[in-house]
């Protein structure tokens, strides 16, 4: 055997596959970035206030709630699932927090309310995880069920009313700022950093990618599949709960329906940012990027005085485009 | 040795279809090499040969599912010009493939008439004559005497009845040639008997039938003629009554493979590290003993032979804990091992490398290091589940390099590796494992090139030398004979024969595998 010859042959072959494998995925995410630039740059020229510090802060403030549920959804999608219950959890967590603070002032009760809201999210996430991982119910159906269950509990607990919040310490969360930056923005980036490290550097994160990438291979390799799936749903529930608490602080009330429809943004954000709906591919940074893109578009359209009704239409098209790019990148056929 | 007997069946002297110098290549590999064969009306031909000999390809070309690279199919003395399923059907050729091709949610009648529905008025826009189709379908079912109704949905009936519905569908089109690719693989013995009655009736009505099989008793019961394929060539065609089973087996074996001399390490003279007793992976069928014992000692390489579907993979999966066994005890390192699951197996040093590495082995979206380390990640994580990436990379690199894997760095995607190198990445898991005791390898050389195969053999021998017990299954007999201390032959879900290295005999093994 002529070693030199075989070695060069082996060397050139994988090189080709490697570039072929990645050029498409890269191209797809590049397209999204270019589209983003095409939107932001002209807008900044026409309306300079668009890139003012004040406006950037207001964009980040707008997206901080979306980002938290988008991160949680990102983890679930990476693990190969989907979580439709996030919007209802946002409402439920707000109601729970508001109820805890009824007639109770002081920072202590504010903290208990935050924990309570997050806990409500964890319970729903646990339910999702059990249904999917232990009862083998498809995630789409299981979380569609808990979407309704969480919304229903929100209604029952609040008796269908909005529960106003008077606890000043709690309301300060969304008013207070350090160095001109409101607290929810710090929370968003802190959660992002934590999740980014968890997914890229810890065992749980690796297992999430492995289970999402090939659940059969992960099982053969002896991975604790069920624990991984449950963990992903619990993370999503907890973050939706936290988002609900922050939103309640912003609107100074707990309302069961505040998060209704948020699941659309939650799913769109990671997908726009390159997390594959098939699972196993992408990064949580993609979810952050996706949510920034959606928030910027919303904000820009507002500045341009476009009716919010159109914003829905435009967001819808962007989501379809992003999923299309995802299928192109992964060479999957939908039919 | 191989003989080609020219013959004509007694009263029907004219062939319905002929293969004329048919060759088929996929890329550089020649699957069929100048096949010449004639099929006569009113005859049943059994097509035999080992896995990969080209049987299915032969049938697919005749049915128009594949076009030949060279040569032509001749129907009634005329060469076919177009190869498509509809052209095949137009010439009266029907095929029942190994994969079920029925629509599960539709009824039996809907499926039998699929694509040729009876309609009132316009051909596609018209109303369906549903009751008439149901009646006709029921009449066809009744002729086959099976207890299903024309308006049962396919998903409601058993797999073997679905198989028969496929045959009814093919027969309902009144084919002149009926091709059955391993029709009995999912049937019970009773159903097989039943199928054969049906085939006999079709034959008596003048149909030419070809079926592929691995089982000798089926050939004896069913076939009028036999054709044996080996490495894409026909090595034997003759009427069954002129042949002995010896001649058939001689025609099947002797596939050429680059022989490699391996120096097998001595087996450790200790107790078996893995032993199973009174074991069965399937429901024991009537009159057949499906229970068996098996054991392997440290440093021993045991080869598992057997035709596709003979139970080798089911055995691996049930020992490793992916499936449950019907019955039997497993002992690992002299301890009973009852609560079997992949994670428990790995903890005890029992490692399984599946045959379909892309589906069940690797996570293609992860990189090479992540894949090789996957089962043992716990060892490379610190407090809080923090992965020590440097260590992970070094360990996997060491393992891969000791296996002579060709790759560009531990952080490239595993999908970018060639098949042979992906297989090595799987084997690397065994090197990284804490305390590997037993390695179960399912078809480790399938679809990889000759050089990589030699590497894999060397790795297996080396692991055995380090005292690991190895059980390896393969469809390539010469490979097993080179590699194993001992070969166990599976048939119908159980080990039916076991041979020591000095008693290896290819014919003997094939005979045991096909039950001749």
How does this model look, in words?
The complex is a heterodimer of chains A (335) and B (516). With 335 residues, chain A is mainly α. Chain A has one domain (25-330): ABC transporter involved in vitamin B12 uptake, BtuC (Orthogonal Bundle), CATH 1.10.3470. Chain A has helices spanning 3-46, 53-78, 86-101, 107-134, 139-158, 168-172, 183-201, 203-213, 215-220, 225-251, 262-272, 284-303, 308-330; strands spanning 163-164, 177-178, 181-182, 253-254. In chain A, helix 2 (53-78) packs across helix 8 (203-213) and helix 3 packs antiparallel against helix 4. Chain A is globular, with a radius of gyration of 22 Å. The N and C termini of chain A lie far apart (46 Å). The model of chain A is unreliable at 1-22 (pLDDT under 50). Chain B has three domains: 17-92 and 175-252, Rossmann fold, CATH 3.40.50.300; 283-349 and 438-516, Rossmann fold (3-Layer(aba) Sandwich), CATH 3.40.50; 362-434, no CATH class. Chain B contains 17 helices and 22 strands. Chain B has helices at residues 55-63, 85-90, 108-112, 130-144, 159-172, 189-204, 216-222, 245-252, 312-320, 342-347, 357-361, 368-373, 389-402, 419-432, 450-465, 477-483, 506-514; strands at residues 17-26, 29-39, 44-48, 70-75, 78-79, 93-96, 119-120, 127-128, 177-180, 208-212, 225-230, 233-239, 274-280, 292-296, 301-305, 327-332, 335-336, 350-353, 438-442, 469-473, 486-491, 494-500. In chain B, strand 9 (177-180), helix 6 and strand 10 (208-212) form a beta-alpha-beta unit. Chain B is globular. Chain A binds chain B through residues 1, 6-7, 10-11, 13-15, 17-18, 21, 198, 201-207, 209-210, 212-214, 216-224, 280-281, and chain B through 320, 322, 341-343, 345-347, 352, 354, 359-366, 370, 374-375, 377-378, 381, 384-387, 389, 406-408, 412-413, 415-418, 429, 451.
């Amino acid at each position: 055997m002529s070693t030199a010859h075989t070695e060069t042959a082996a060397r050139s072959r994988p090189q080709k596959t490697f570039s072929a494998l990645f050029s498409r995925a890269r191209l797809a995410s590049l397209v999204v970035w270019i589209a983003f630039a095409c939107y932001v740059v002209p807008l900044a020229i026409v309306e300079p206030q668009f890139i003012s510090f004040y406006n950037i802060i207001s964009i980040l403030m707008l997206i901080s709630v979306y980002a938290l549920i988008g991160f949680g959804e990102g983890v679930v999608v990476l693990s190969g699932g989907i979580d439709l219950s996030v919007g209802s959890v946002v409402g439920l967590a707000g109601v729970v927090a508001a109820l805890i603070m009824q007639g109770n002032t002081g920072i202590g009760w504010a903290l208990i309310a935050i924990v309570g809201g997050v806990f409500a999210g964890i319970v729903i996430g646990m339910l999702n995880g059990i249904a999917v991982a232990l009862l083998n119910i498809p995630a789409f159906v299981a979380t569609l069920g808990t979407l309704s269950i969480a919304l229903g509990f929100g209604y029952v607990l609040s008796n269908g009313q909005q529960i106003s919040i008077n606890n000043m310490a709690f309301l300060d969360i969304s008013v207070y700022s350090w160095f001109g930056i409101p607290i929810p923005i710090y929370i968003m980036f802190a959660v992002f950093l934590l999740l980014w490290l968890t997914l890229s550097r810890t065992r749980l994160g690796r297992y999430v990618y492995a289970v999402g990438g090939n659940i059969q291979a992960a099982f053969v390799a002896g991975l604790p599949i069920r624990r991984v799936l449950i963990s992903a749903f619990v993370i999503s529930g907890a973050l939706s709960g936290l988002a609900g608490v922050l939103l309640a602080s912003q609107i100074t009330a707990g309302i069961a329906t505040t998060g209704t429809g948020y699941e659309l943004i939650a799913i769109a954000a990671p997908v726009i940012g390159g997390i594959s709906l098939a699972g196993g591919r992408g990064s949580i940074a993609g979810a952050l990027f996706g949510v920034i893109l959606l928030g910027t578009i919303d904000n820009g359209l507002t500045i341009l005085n476009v009716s919010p009704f159109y914003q829905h239409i435009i967001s819808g098209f962007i989501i379809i485009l992003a999923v299309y790019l995802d299928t192109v990148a992964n060479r999957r056929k939908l039919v | 040795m191989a003989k080609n007997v020219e013959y004509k069946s007694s009263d029907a002297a004219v062939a319905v279809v002929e293969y004329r110098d048919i060759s088929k290549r996929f890329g550089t590999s020649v699957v069929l090499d100048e096949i010449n064969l004639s099929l006569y009306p009113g005859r049943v031909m059994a097509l035999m040969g080992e896995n990969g000999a080209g049987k299915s390809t032969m049938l697919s070309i005749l049915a128009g599912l594949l076009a030949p690279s060279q040569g032509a199919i001749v129907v009634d003395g005329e060469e076919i010009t177009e190869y498509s399923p509809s052209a095949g059907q137009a010439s009266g050729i029907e095929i029942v493939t190994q994969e079920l091709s029925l629509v599960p949610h539709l009824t039996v009648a809907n499926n039998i008439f699929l694509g040729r529905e009876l309609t009132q008025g316009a051909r596609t826009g018209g109303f369906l004559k549903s009751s008439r189709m149901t009646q006709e379908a029921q009449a066809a079912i009744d002729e086959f005497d099976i207890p299903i109704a024309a308006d049962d949905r396919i998903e409601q009936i058993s797999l073997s009845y679905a198989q028969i519905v496929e045959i009814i569908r093919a027969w309902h089109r009144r084919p002149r040639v009926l091709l059955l690719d391993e029709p009995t693989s999912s049937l019970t013995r009773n159903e097989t008997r039943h199928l054969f009655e049906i085939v006999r009736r079709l034959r008596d009505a003048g149909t030419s039938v070809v079926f592929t099989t691995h089982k000798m008793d089926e050939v004896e019961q069913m076939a009028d003629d036999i054709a044996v394929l080996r490495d894409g060539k026909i090595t034997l065609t003759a009427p069954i009554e002129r042949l002995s089973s010896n001649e058939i087996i001689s025609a099947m074996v002797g596939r050429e493979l680059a022989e490699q001399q391996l120096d097998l390490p001595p087996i450790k003279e200790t107790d078996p590290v893995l032993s199973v007793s009174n074991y069965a992976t399937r429901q024991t069928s009537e009159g057949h003993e499906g229970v068996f014992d098996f054991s392997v000692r440290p440093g021993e390489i045991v080869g598992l032979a057997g035709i596709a579907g003979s139970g080798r993979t089911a055995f691996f999966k049930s020992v490793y804990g992916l499936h449950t066994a019907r019955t039997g005890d497993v002992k690992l390192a002299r301890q009973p091992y009852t609560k079997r699951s992949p994670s428990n197996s790995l903890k005890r040093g029992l490692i399984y490398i599946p045959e379909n590495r892309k589906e069940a082995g690797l996570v293609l979206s992860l990189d090479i290091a992540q894949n090789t380390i996957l089962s043992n990640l716990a060892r490379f994580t610190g407090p809080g589940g923090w992965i020590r990436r440097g260590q992970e990379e070094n360990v996997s690199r060491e393992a891969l390099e000791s296996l002579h894997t060709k790759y560009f760095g531990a952080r490239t995607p595993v999908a970018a590796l060639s098949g042979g190198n992906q297989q090595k990445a799987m084997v690397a898991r065994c090197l990284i494992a804490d305390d590997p005791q037993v390695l179960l390898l399912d078809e480790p050389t399938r679809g990889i090139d000759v050089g990589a195969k030699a590497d894999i053999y060397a790795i297996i021998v080396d692991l055995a030398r380090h005292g690991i017990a190895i059980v390896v299954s393969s469809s390539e007999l010469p490979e097993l004979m080179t590699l194993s201390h001992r070969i166990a032959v599976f048939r119908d879900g159980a080990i039916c024969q076991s041979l020591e290295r000095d008693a290896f005999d290819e014919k003997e093994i094939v005979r045991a595998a096909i039950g001749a």
